[in-house]
Write a structure and sequence with these properties.
By secondary structure, this protein is α+β, with helices and mostly antiparallel strands. It folds into four domains: 6-126, no CATH class; 139-280 and 294-340, no CATH class; 393-468, no CATH class; 472-665, Nucleotidyltransferase, domain 5. The protein starts with 5 loop residues before the first helix and ends in a 45-residue tail after the last helix.
Length: 675
Amino acid sequence: MVKIKPELQVKYDDIQSQLEAIDEDTDDRIQTEDNLCNTECKLKSLLDKMSIKPPDKSDRTDMKPINNQMQFLQPIKLPCFSENLLEWQHYFNTFNDLIHSRNDLSDIQKLYYLKSSLRDEIEKFWEIEEPILVKQTSHDNSICERNFIENTIRNKDGRFIVTLPRKSDNIKLGDSLNNAKNRFLSLECKLIQDPSFKKGYSNFINEYIDLGHMSELNSKDLLIPDSEVFYLPHHAVFKETSLTTKLRVVFDGSAKSSNGLSLNDTLMIGPTVQQDLFSIILRFRVHNYVITSDITKMYRQILVTQKDSNLQRILWRENPEQDLKHYALRTGTTSASFLATRCLVQIPNACRAILNDYVDDLITGADSVHEIKQLKTNVCILWNNYLYKLTYEVNQREVKIFTKRHILSIISGICDPSGLIGPIIFLCKHFMQSLWLVKCNWDDTLPNNLLSQWQIVYNQLSLVSSINVDRCVKLNIDSSIKSFQLHGLPDASLNGFGCCIYVRITYCNDKVSCNLLCSKSRVAPLKQMTLPRLELCACLLLSRLLNQVTLALNERINEIHLYSDSMIALHWIHGQSTNWKVFVANRVSEIQQLTFNVKWHHIESPSNPADILSRGCLPEKLINFILWWHGPSWLWLLQDSFCWPTNHHFNSTETNVDPQCLVQKRQTVQIHSKY
């Protein structure tokens, strides 16, 4: 066994804490991968000083070196991380339970599992859509909920006091003071060397003390046994883009005690209580009047019991001349997100806006001036100017040599939860797939053919900032609405597939508006598929997206119409799912369930705006592409369905006809859904 010098061990622990706190430092998974690689470089450099040989780049990621021999790592089904950025915290915490908390795995092995997991998630860009399983409430989540209901109280000031959701009362922690002390002494050296850094760090800690979010312990408190206390190491995280606090102090609940257990190992995370960002943005776009707000230091507004605060101790002093002081945090750490948002639900008179439209900030609205004034009074928020446009920001930094790492970082920097610039995002995803196929390493220069393709895209990305989308999908906020309709269209190409949904509104003054509400796209899987199957996947993607939209806007919708330019896909959808092979049958069955009582129409390809989504588009073309922003021209007309594509009812006698026969009738036969 290699003997490690104490000073190197401290540095190793510090790097490991950075690795564990990556999720605190970033807001998206691609930047996380970037930070992960940088941390790995530091780790390898330190291992060299320790005379430990790290695994070679040529080594397989599913192997581990033991006594200079290669052995396979145990296959573990790692958690799935979707494109929803809000799910990153849940993904990280699940990974922590499955991999990081295991004492039988070394740090290097855990690092390989994490890298492999993130790499697999990037490949999911072009994996085929599979049926979504209904999310079930886990046993741990049920325990968290019961613990909250039975043990939460409010003090005389109305502030919630909660208990931390522990996995078991029988789990005992080891000594954590020595590790926390060593980590603090290492941090203190950095603070002494950088006065500006020290000032920012001290200000953050002193704010905690002034606000009562942590309190100093007395000599009696220090007599509590080690198994009932836990000392959290802490370090700084910088976020230059923050408008308020550029430096935050992160308390490391993943640090191990002397028996190998960390505080996070003993606590449950808790379920996600708040609404998803996608639904909140959809509602934000249909309100006549909107407001935004923030709950100041929300997670720190909820206090933990005195007993549980002993599990959240830290060490601190202003300068080395002082003795180390022991403090206890009064606010939660690991499960703070669940506890804080669950407390919002517990408020008896909490208004609809907080319950439905709060994630990390409040983004909500109403349809009348009276409602918006009442909402402002109820939640004590600041009035914001009426927002007319939604805009995008792309931060393009100067890059001398383009690598896969740089390109991935640029693509991930474009945030588009609603898919309003979906064709641009698809173009970038498809390029990323091409880059993946040539198996470039993260820091290798791109091949010339791919470099020239990327430069064309890169040179136009700055134009994304000039795209302005109406915040409100309504033509006039003062006009009375006669009908609120959703129109969805899917399409596919050999490059990928996608779908888009439009809001068509007819008003009592005989005017009509039609605007893009949202879209979703997928790059085609690496394993080649037939175009009809890709078209069916597009229909499934539309059905799922429609389900999300209707859940968010259910009260407003009067009619829903779906369209496809694929006769084969429509034939499958209108047949019995048991008539088709497994691939088609599974997707048809889900489509029929999700779009029950919804009309499917056939349209000609030139009228399908999803066509551009399945192929990608440069910003220069998309900016003024009317078909994309407002849908087919016949949707703008007042006469409703009288001017839409004429559809004949599907002939039920053809349910067993070979779909290939329908290709010859594409120009003459049109289909209307029996639903």
